[in-house]
Design brief:
Largest sheet of chain A: 7 strands, mixed
Oligomer: heterodimer
Largest interface: A-B, 88 and 95 residues
Number of domains of chain A: 2
Shape of chain B: elongated
Distance between the termini of chain A: 76 Å
Number of helices of chain B: 18
Strand content of chain B: 25-35%
Distance between the termini of chain B: 95 Å
Number of strands of chain A: 9
Strand order of the largest sheet of chain A: 1-4-5-9-8-7-6
Radius of gyration of chain B: 40 Å
Structural class of chain A: alpha+beta
Chain lengths: ~350, ~700
């Protein structure tokens, strides 16, 4: 190939021949790589020994009247060769890049490296959902102790000493104290009680008290000595029984969906009069399902109008103020919502149970 | 309690009510019918009775409610006095009430010449017992019958077993027991008594626990011929105290504890006497020995119609209120326009105040009639700060990859003991616990996490990252102290993936979780200070320090403790959430520097006894304001480093918000830091003599 073509036509033919020869050599590699094109550029366009340069050097040997045509021919050839090799160069660069990428390829179907995904407990998620419903109705969220005095646990809530109503809420007692572990409602009594700062009762009140409560129950799929309650209390002038019904209905719609209805039935709790059992129409079915025990209704909470003795015990004038209270089991509602078959799952902390999203 | 439809029907003239309708209406007015058995005359209703309605715990009482709920007539069945013989009952026995506060009335009849039968045909014929109640003997069946019919508990004594008083007559004395007295009750158990127990005594000794259970030696036997029948009204408190102190609960005590009708003693006595004589023959002595120690006046409660309307938020016409109350046997008089004076029936022990009467009206009208109205708008809401902090901790730890657990507050004494030093004060012990492992309130939620870890490991899941936000409990000088904690547990490998071998969780994963928690609150990074506590492995345990105060602990669980829990190495931490110094959110933010900083490395060989804190302090002390961070880049122990020494490479970052730093000044600061490190005894710094 060291021969220098004598005419432009010969050079053009030579270029085509060399190109196809090189292409044939490169084809096992998939085509030209940048080095192949670089070599061709040196051979054809190199400033010192390039074929085109050498061809141009023959200009002086060309007869005078042919010089112009020869020069124009060489220039045209140069542009053709440049264009062709530039195109090949770009192609080769892309090929090289894609080969480099291919070398880094992985099996994308292999298991991914998952950063640790934490989980919130279903009781946390359900509690927050209940809180959100009542926050929307203007409730504060309050706090209270779990180890509670007899006064707040019972007497202030209108459970007289030695009254059988205490049987229903069998309490744990801490040795050496009359206190029991908290059952439902004491935080309400705390909130309603005189303010530590000024001794004034704190009506009006609109408060929600989430918390852990205790009852002397053995552990089984439906019972636990430790469980979680959401209590609510509203005290103000002019609060009516109809307000209680309206509030429970609004909660039911917010929490269970717009077509949920509430059904209230009379019952007895010492701290309210009248007392209410509240059921919500089942929004999980049309004609009865496991969740509503095929009754169409799900019992979700107890409620009632705050007993005047309870208001008086908190230093609130029951003639001037009235109020209502309600309480629901967070555990129970979580079980209903998510079809959790056994209460113990909420306390065993089996990660196969916990490792999922509850909202 | 079970009720027979036919028996209820004795008080409802006309056809028996439809079972389904009765079931629905009774439930509507507060007597929840949990189920029914059978059909027609034989139908039985299973009714859940609330503690405030002892008057509904008998057929007559429930029939009265049914009549009102169904809008039907209620008709009482009279209990006439039985035919009597010539002998005066008062000549055959005496009754004395020494405790008028605890026993308002004691009524007794005496029947002579009875022949006790095995079962009571009279009872079986008139009204068989609800299912599940088998006939025992005629006197017992008769007393049970009256209990279920009228709610009056009764007792029958063998008159000839009662010791006689000074006047030669058998004596019945209602009194407190004397300390040390004993009584063998019908169940064959000998009971030792004290003045807190109310008893029925004869002239010498207790013969029954008042309102709870009779004595064995004065009970009716097949050979009994003379019977003294007791029908009394005991105070609810007295019976409850006696029964509870002795751990007893009987049909009689169940009713007395809730309150019986003081006006029914003679009626019940007459009814049982008639049944007894019909079955067993005999002659009824003349008259009732009826001692009324204390009159219990009828209550009169005022009901203002305007109050009822404003309390309910709906109108119930006055006439309807009067109709409902009258149907429930309340006496109603309108004393002023819209004001009723309502006389409460003697059996309605639950009705004391106006709100109780309002409930009577609305429960019969039906709660379904109430309109659904929201209270007027109220103030904007907020959450108690500590609750918001607990929830934020949950979010931070979940975001850091931990799974939230929820465990019992109770643990066993044995589980709690190793951790007791983690809190000040003593562990609250439950006086009436369910037994182990529920006797003690936990010193740290870590115990619950250990239980959770064991549960999972036993099921083959050993790579665990758990947290719980909950309370720890202690008694300090007798007062309960509840502390809000965030606890974490790590066990097994961290971040398993096929591309690299997973490392087991170690101390730094624990301290890292704590640091992440602080970072999540925007709090300054906590310090970790070596500590020696019995529940953590020595040398791999620290107390967490924030703002100069110890706010928790972190470390590898002590080996023996881990073994006791069936765990491999577990890393645990417990932080006092209330003690995390949470700053307010930023109120102004500086622009990040436009000038890139520079990092330089310093490699120090130092004794193991020189901790990171010392190195960190040496670099920072006297450093220019341009020093931004000091990190540990690499640690090496082994070849090239003497025994007892470690080679630590520190990475020191410099930067300025105002300018690019020159290589010369950075090198100068680096060398100054190196010279300060050299001042720490035993250290050498690479490249510095």
């Amino acid at each position: 190939m060291s021969t220098v073509p004598v005419s432009v036509e010969e050079a053009r033919g030579l270029f085509a021949a060399e190109l196809s020869e090189s292409e044939a050599a490169a084809s096992p590699r998939g085509g030209f790589l940048p080095a192949d094109v670089a070599a061709l550029k040196v051979r054809w366009l190199g400033k010192k020994q390039g074929v085109v340069t050498a061809l141009l050097a023959r200009l002086k040997e060309v007869p005078k009247e042919e010089k112009a045509a020869f020069g124009a021919g060489v220039n045209a050839l140069k542009q053709e060769v440049e264009a062709r090799l530039d195109a090949l160069e770009a192609e080769a660069a892309a090929r090289a890049a894609s080969l480099a990428e291919a070398a880094k390829a992985v099996d994308v179907t292999l298991p991914p490296r998952v950063p640790p995904v934490g989980r919130l407990h279903p009781l946390t998620v359900v509690r927050r959902r209940i809180e959100a419903s009542f926050r929307g109705l203007g409730y504060e969220v309050a706090d209270g102790p779990e180890i509670e005095t007899d006064w707040y646990n019972f007497e202030s809530l209108n459970f007289p000493p030695d009254h059988p109503a205490r049987d229903a809420v069998d309490t744990f007692f801490v040795e050496g104290r009359r206190d029991g572990a908290r059952r439902a409602s004491p935080p309400d009594a705390h909130v309603a009680g005189p303010d530590a700062d000024d001794g004034e009762p704190q009506a009006p009140i609109r408060v929600l008290c989430p918390g852990r409560v205790y009852r002397k129950d053995d552990i089984d799929p439906r019972h636990s000595p430790v469980f979680h309650q959401m209590e609510g209390l509203v005290v103000d002038e002019g609060i009516t029984f109809a307000h209680l019904r309206g509030t429970l209905a609004a909660f039911a719609k917010s929490f269970f969906g717009g077509r949920a209805e509430v059904r209230l039935a009379p019952t007895f709790f010492p701290f309210v009069e009248p007392g209410v059992d509240c059921a919500v129409s089942c929004t999980f079915c049309e004609k009865g399902c496991r969740i509503c025990s095929f009754s169409g209704w799900i019992e979700i909470m107890g409620a009632g109008m705050v007993h005047p003795n309870v208001l008086a015990n908190a230093g609130i004038d029951p003639e001037r103020y009235t109020g209502f209270a309600f309480g629901m089991g967070i555990d129970r509602i979580a079980m209903l919502l998510h079809g959790i078959p056994d209460l113990r799952l909420l306390f065993e902390n089996d990660v196969r149970f916990l490792d999922r999203t509850w909202s | 309690m079970k009720f027979r439809l036919e028996w209820l029907g004795q008080y409802l003239p006309g056809e028996l009510p439809d079972l389904a309708t009765l079931r629905r209406r009774l439930t509507d007015v507060g007597f929840i019918v949990e189920g029914t058995e059978g059909e027609g005359r034989d139908a039985v209703l299973d009714v859940e009775l609330t503690a405030n309605r002892p008057d509904g715990m008998n057929h007559r009482g429930l029939a009265r409610e049914a009549a009102c709920a169904l809008g039907r007539e209620f008709r009482d069945v009279p209990a006439p006095a039985p035919a009597e013989g010539p002998l005066e009952a008062s000549s055959l026995a005496t009754v004395t009430i020494e405790e008028p506060a605890l026993c308002s009335r004691y009524s007794a009849r005496i029947v002579e010449g009875v022949q006790v039968r095995e079962a009571s045909p009279a009872v079986q014929e008139t009204a068989p017992a609800p299912s599940g109640m088998n006939p025992i003997s005629s006197p017992v069946d008769a007393t049970n019958h009256v209990l279920w019919d009228l709610g009056q508990p009764l007792h029958a004594f063998d008159l000839d077993t009662l010791a006689k008083g000074a006047d030669g007559r058998p004596a019945i004395v209602v009194r407190r027991a004397r300390a040390g007295e004993t009584l063998v009750t019908l169940d064959g158990v000998e009971r030792t008594l004290s003045p807190e127990h109310l008893v029925i005594a004869d002239a010498e000794k207790p013969v029954a626990l008042a309102g709870v259970m009779g004595g064995l030696h004065t009970a009716i036997t097949p050979s009994t011929t003379r019977v003294l029948l007791e029908s009394a009204h005991f105070s609810a408190t007295a019976v409850r105290k006696t029964a509870r102190l002795l751990g007893m609960h009987t049909d009689a005590s169940h009713r007395f504890e809730r309150g019986t009708d003081p006006a029914t003693t003679v009626e019940g006595l007459n009814r049982v006497t008639a049944l007894l004589v019909a079955d067993c023959g005999g002659t009824v002595a003349r008259g009732v020995i009826d001692v009324l120690a204390r009159e219990i006046p009828s209550r009169v409660v005022k009901l203002r119609h305007a109050r009822l309307v404003s309390f309910l938020g709906m109108d119930v016409p006055l006439g309807r209120c009067v109709q409902i109350l009258s149907a429930l046997a309340f006496g109603v008089t309108e004393t002023a326009p819209g004001v009723l004076a309502v006389t409460v029936p003697t059996w309605r022990v639950d009705v004391e105040q106006e709100c109780d009467l309002i409930e009577e009206v609305i429960r019969v009208v039906g709660y379904g009639a109430l309109p659904e109205v929201l209270p007027p708008p109220f103030n904007p809401t907020w959450a108690e700060p500590i609750l918001a902090r607990e929830d934020r901790a949950r979010d931070v730890l979940a975001a850091a990859g931990f799974v939230e657990a929820c465990s019992y507050s109770f643990v066993s004494a044995e589980e709690n003991a190793p951790f007791e030093s983690a809190v000040s004060g003593s562990a609250p012990v439950i006086a009436n616990a369910l037994g182990e492992p529920f006797t003690t309130m936990r010193a740290t939620p870590v115990i619950g996490l250990l239980r959770a870890a064991r549960h999972n490991i036993r099921r083959g899941l050993s790579d665990l990252s758990l947290f719980e936000v909950g309370r720890s409990y202690a008694l300090v000088e007798g007062h309960p102290v509840e502390s809000r904690r965030a606890a974490v547990l790590l066990h097994g490998r961290r971040g398993t993936h096929w591309a690299a071998e997973a490392l087991p969780a170690d101390f730094y994963d624990g301290s890292g979780a704590v640091a992440a928690l602080f970072a999540g609150f925007g709090a300054a990074a906590p310090g970790f200070r070596p500590v020696s506590v019995p529940f953590l492995a020595s040398g791999r345990s620290a107390e967490i320090v924030a703002g100069g105060v110890v706010v928790g602990w972190v470390g590898v669980l002590a080996g023996p403790l881990a073994a006791a829990w069936d765990l491999d190495e577990a890393v645990v931490a417990d932080v006092d959430l209330a003690a995390i110094p949470v700053p307010p959110p930023p109120s102004s933010v500086a622009m990040p520097s436009r000038f890139p900083g520079s990092d330089v490395d310093l490699t120090v060989t130092h004794p193991l006894s020189v901790g990171w804190e010392t190195l960190d302090e040496a670099v920072r002390k006297g450093a220019p304001a341009e020093l931004l961070r000091v990190d540990a880049k690499y640690l090496w122990r082994g070849a090239g480093v003497p025994e007892g020494f470690v080679k630590t490479t520190l990475r020191v970052a410099f930067g300025s918000p105002e300018r690019s730093l020159g290589r010369d000044e950075i090198n100068r600061w680096r060398d100054e830091a190196a010279r300060r490190l050299l001042l720490v005894p035993g250290t050498a710094v690479d490249g510095i003599a």
